[in-house]
TrEMBL record:
Domain Glycoside hydrolase family 2 catalytic intervals: 171-293
Official protein name in the record: Cellulase family glycosylhydrolase
InterPro entries in the record: GH, Glyco_hydro_2_cat
Gene3D superfamilies in the record: Glycosidases
Keywords tagged on the record: Signal
Signal peptide positions (record): 1-19
Pfam families: Glyco_hydro_2_C
SUPFAM superfamilies membership: (Trans)glycosidases
Length: 353
């Protein structure tokens, strides 16, 4: 604890020092390729522990549950997964910056003990556009991600001073963990332009890349493309990411087309979201494709829980019954696979025993 607190103090001082630096350049294609080759094929899930309805319930001191996190990451390790994509939220930092960073360190310790690297996500344009710290709401019965939080959401439009807070947050987190080998990558902004923001998200997208490049972070920076209709945002993301990240919930034919279209950027590819069973994005057809194409693979959802992501985005079940086909997630909370045959496929691809 003392060593980590000393590191936090040093990082805080470094944040001030680096804030005046000229942003570093995007990685060269050669550097990006070298970085990618240093890692085994990364495969895992978007991880939110089953006890948490959203990022704040995961990270706030009152509800941060290391036993549950360790247990559920153990399920992932048991099927050969070696990486997780994990969402942060600036409000947890604003509430208790030092405590939040200590909990991040604790999470990374647990993840590392399970042989799992971490990709952290900073901002997000998906689902609920307001947030409040403290006790989080209960899930809405049968509704997908009823309590998930945008970050920063609509407050960026009504509170200009929030920008200064967000800058301090980004620089503090990335500076504190700038050389941490347990962190694979910084995913700076999840699905910018979603929730009908469109190009309104461009300003924050540009700012977060600039802020991140003003820190000494040694890990690559990226923001994944997810909708071909958001042309301006896509161009910026693809031209400013050190490695290319993207989302695709289509079948193997359309997913292959997406991979082929992104190859022209000549950078490593990482699929940070896939697997929606009712849309024929499955472990059986997509995960082998990603391995063959040497694309890192992160499906949505590990353990079914308060996020209700077993329900489809647009198909609520008001009675809260179990859907005939789960939309996302691999395990029930006791570690039982939803579909044992899927786990067999995953283990065959990861080499797990």
């Amino acid at each position: 604890m003392k060593v980590f607190l000393t590191a936090l103090l040093s990082a805080t001082m470094a944040t001030v020092a680096f804030a005046q630096e000229t942003p570093r350049e995007i990685w060269s294609k050669k550097k990006a390729a070298k970085w990618y080759k240093q890692h085994a094929w990364q495969r895992g899930s978007n991880f939110i522990p089953s006890y948490a309805i959203n990022q704040l319930e995961m990270w706030q001191a009152e509800t941060f549950d290391t036993a549950a996190i360790n247990r559920e990451l153990g399920y992932a390790a048991g099927i050969g997964m070696n990486s997780m994509r994990v969402f942060l939220h600036h409000a947890a930092w604003e509430q208790d910056a030092e405590g939040f960073k200590q909990r991040i360190n604790n999470y990374l310790d647990i993840s590392d003990r399970n042989g799992i690297s971490t990709m952290f996500v900073l901002f997000d344009d998906c689902w609920n556009n307001t947030y409040a710290t403290g006790t989080q709401p209960a899930p809405k019965t049968g509704i997908h991600n009823s309590g998930w939080l945008q970050d920063p959401g609509i407050r960026r439009e009504t509170s200009p001073a929030l920008t200064d807070t967000l800058e301090r947050y980004v620089k503090d987190i990335l500076t504190t963990f700038a050389t941490d080998k347990r962190i694979l990558l910084w995913d700076l902004y999840n699905e910018p332009g979603n929730s009908k923001y469109g190009n309104k998200s461009m300003d924050l997208l540009q700012k977060v890349f600039r802020w991140a490049r003003q820190t000494p972070a040694e890990q690559p920076l990226s923001a994944g493309v997810w909708s071909k209709d958001l042309t301006d945002l896509n161009v910026y993301q693809l031209n400013n990411s050190d490695v290319i990240t993207y989302h695709n919930y289509a079948d193997e034919k359309e997913h292959q087309q997406a991979i082929d279209s992104l190859r022209k950027y000549e950078r490593p590819l990482i699929c940070t979201e896939y697997m929606a069973r009712t849309r024929n994005s499955l472990f059986q057809n997509i995960m082998p494709l990603l391995k063959k194409e040497k694309v890192a693979a992160y499906n949505w959802g590990l353990v079914s829980g308060k996020t209700n992501t077993i329900y489809a985005w647009d198909t609520p079940m008001r009675d809260g019954g179990e859907p005939a086909i789960w939309f996302h997630d691999i395990f029930r909370q006791d570690g039982t696979p939803y579909k044992p045959e899927e786990v067999t496929v995953i283990k065959s691809l990861t080499g797990a025993q």
